[in-house]
């Protein structure tokens, strides 16, 4: 089981799947040591993430809730109820951005974005997740990747000679090569921290034994005085 925990992880997440991955990593980072080791191991073992068309933030005056609706509309039939739900969740998604930013520097991140509009109703086309939303500016250890396809087809490659396939496979190959040594070093550092914490607890522990406590001689004088003071008095039962 320990080997499973320490196995390197590389996430590839398309569209709203990236939101789920970020939520899982935030949860893993918050998991308490000793209580949820399997949950904590997810973040520790994650080396890289390839986000493909994930809407990380609003852009061009379009709120994140509206952007999420654009994404949902190409997968399911939308309604006013879905729109209201996404608008409510947009506040949570903004909070998620703030929670994810501090831990994002622990991963090598690739932001893939579509460069072609996606066909929608009535023969129209629309950019579902534009580059400013799919790529987080200033993200640590991150790189953007342009995919010559629309939102739906950016993860569907017709052949190995496809330009998008060549770009994605090259990045994944590099991540897979670098991950084992990096994650092994991360877990080794984690073991050092655990041992150091265990030593601190051991050094500050104070041994205690009742056998070392001197015995107190029992005095009979106190008992005699109490008996004399209580003589002749009634006792209510």
Essential attributes:
elongated, two-stranded antiparallel ribbon, alpha/beta, 8 helices, 4-stranded parallel beta sheet, 237 residues, single chain, disordered C terminus
Walkthrough of the structure:
The termini are far apart. It is built from eight helices and six strands. It is of the alpha/beta class and 237 residues long. Helix 2 (17-30) packs across helix 3 (37-45) and helix 2 packs across helix 5. A four-stranded parallel sheet has the order 1-2-3-6, sandwiched between helices.
Distance between the termini: 65 Å
Spatial strand order of the main sheet: 1-2-3-6
Q: Tell me about the biggest sheet?
A: 4 strands, parallel
Mean pLDDT over the full residue set: 80
What is the alpha-carbon Rg in Å? 31 Å
Q: Could you give the count of β-strands?
A: 6
**Helical run tally:** 8
- Poorly predicted regions are 231-237
Envelope shape: elongated
Order of helices and strands: HEHHEHHEEEHEHH
Helix content: 40-55%
**Structural classification:** alpha/beta
Please indicate the percent range of residues in DSSP E strands (runs of 2 or more).
5-15%
């Amino acid at each position: 089981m320990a080997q499973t925990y320490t196995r390197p992880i590389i996430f590839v997440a398309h569209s709203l799947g990236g939101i789920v991955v970020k939520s899982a990593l935030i949860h893993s980072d918050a998991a308490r040591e000793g209580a949820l080791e399997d949950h904590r191991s997810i973040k520790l073992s994650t080396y890289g993430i390839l986000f493909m068309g994930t809407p990380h933030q609003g852009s061009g005056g379009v709120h994140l809730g509206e952007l999420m609706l654009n994404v949902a509309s190409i997968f399911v039939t939308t309604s006013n109820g879905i729109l209201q739900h996404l608008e409510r969740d947009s506040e949570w998604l903004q909070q998620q951005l703030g929670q994810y930013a501090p831990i994002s520097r622990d991963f090598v991140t690739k932001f893939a974005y579509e460069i072609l509009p996606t066909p929608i109703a009535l023969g129209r086309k629309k950019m579902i997740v534009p580059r400013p939303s799919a790529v987080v500016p200033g993200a640590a250890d991150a790189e953007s990747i342009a995919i010559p396809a629309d939102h739906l087809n950016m993860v569907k490659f017709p052949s190995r000679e496809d330009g998008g396939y060549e770009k994605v496979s090259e990045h994944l190959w590099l991540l897979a090569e670098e991950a084992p040594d990096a994650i092994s070093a991360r877990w080794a550092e984690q073991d050092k921290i655990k041992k150091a914490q265990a030593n601190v607890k051991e050094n500050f522990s104070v041994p205690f034994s009742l056998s070392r406590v001197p015995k107190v001689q029992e005095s009979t004088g106190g008992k005699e005085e109490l008996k004399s003071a209580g003589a002749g008095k009634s006792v209510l039962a």
